[in-house]
Amino acid sequence: MVVIVNGERLEVTATHVDQLLGELDYQGTHLAVAVNCGVIPRARWNLTALQDGDAVEILTPRQGG
Amino acid sequence: MVKFYETEFSSRLLIGSALYPSPAIMQRAIRASGADIVTVSVRRESAGGMAGEAFWSLIRELDVTVLPNTAGCMSVREAVTTARLARELFDTPRIKLEVIADSETLQPDVVGLVEAAAILIKDGFEVFPYCTEDLSVAQRLVDAGCRVVMPWASAIGSARGIVNREGLKLLRARLPEITLVVDAGLGAPSHAAEALELGYDAVLLNTAVAKAADPVVMAEAFRLAVDAGRAGFEAGLMGPRDFASPSTPVIGTPFWHAVS
Question: C-alpha distances in angstroms, A65 versus B14, B41, B100, B184?
């Protein structure tokens, strides 16, 4: 299926959020994930199924003012 | 001590973590500032990327309280979602709430800001809203439950200092119970001292330190200015006068009323 990860359309085999992170080689321990503007807590990554066309944001801490 | 919601902090200087020449200088400047609270942001991570991880380890070494922001958010929905992501990421109820109306001027969208603040306060956040110096907006933020209000001095990153001194004085006079922070536009230590002299509880700045020729020394300069400004406020400033008033005693002046 196709999901939009951080604004980029990607063809993936993952069906859940935790699988998507693994498939895309996200390794950090400080990640936050939103699917279609809803925050998915870490404890629910393996319970959250992805649908074709979902918009996924994968975020980390950065410099800010 | 200065109170942000139910927590007291000793430093009245909040500092940003962006725009420094290097990560090492960022760390040294933040330490030199004496700040207890450091602002950070939430940004997209590239696949396989570790930039966020590396940055976060530098911040953790500083042993500070982080204040995540919603910088760049142009709508209520974006800001609220970013705040919730920040809470997940940093495990903190604190959020520096920015809803930006115009990407060029970085003017706060005060209507969206009030709406987003109300949503987040109900959701248990401690909201630090970045706003203009407009009293009616500040009052609506307070009515929504904000205990901290952060009006700008001037445009973000402009270094122009306080452009509406009377507006900031009015906010201070009308919101005596609210923790007021001058956020954005401060360019020199004297600007920070002026904000504290007006009775503001704290200042928040980033660019003025990060873009100084020597950010570490500038951070120290701002620390001293904030302390000086606060001491001046607590000491009670005399009011201005229209005409001269001699400081040296007049009585006993030599040649006084000399016979001509």
Answer: 10, 8, 14, 9
Q: pLDDT tens digit string along A4-60?
A: 999 999 999 999 999 999 999 998 789 999 999 999 999 999 999 999 999 999 999
Residue of B33, B37, B42, B182 to mutate for A, most A C-beta atoms under 10 A? B42
For residue B192, the surrounding DSSP H or E stretch is helix B189-197
Closest-CA residue to B228 (of B171, B258, B188, B260): B188
Distance from the Cα of B237 to chain A's closest Cα (Å) equals 31
Measured between CB atoms, which of B17, B39, B52 is closest to A60? B52
Which residues on chain B are in Cβ contact (under 8 Å) with A21? Answer: none
Please report the ipTM that was assigned to this predicted complex.
Answer: 0.94
> Which among A26, A57, A63 is the top mutation candidate for probing chain B, defined by the most B β-carbons within 10 Å of its own β-carbon?
A63
The overall longest dimension of chain A from CA atoms, in Å, is 38
- What token pair was written down for B238? 């005399």
Interface touch B69/A31, C-beta < 8 Å? no
Write down the pTM of the prediction. 0.93
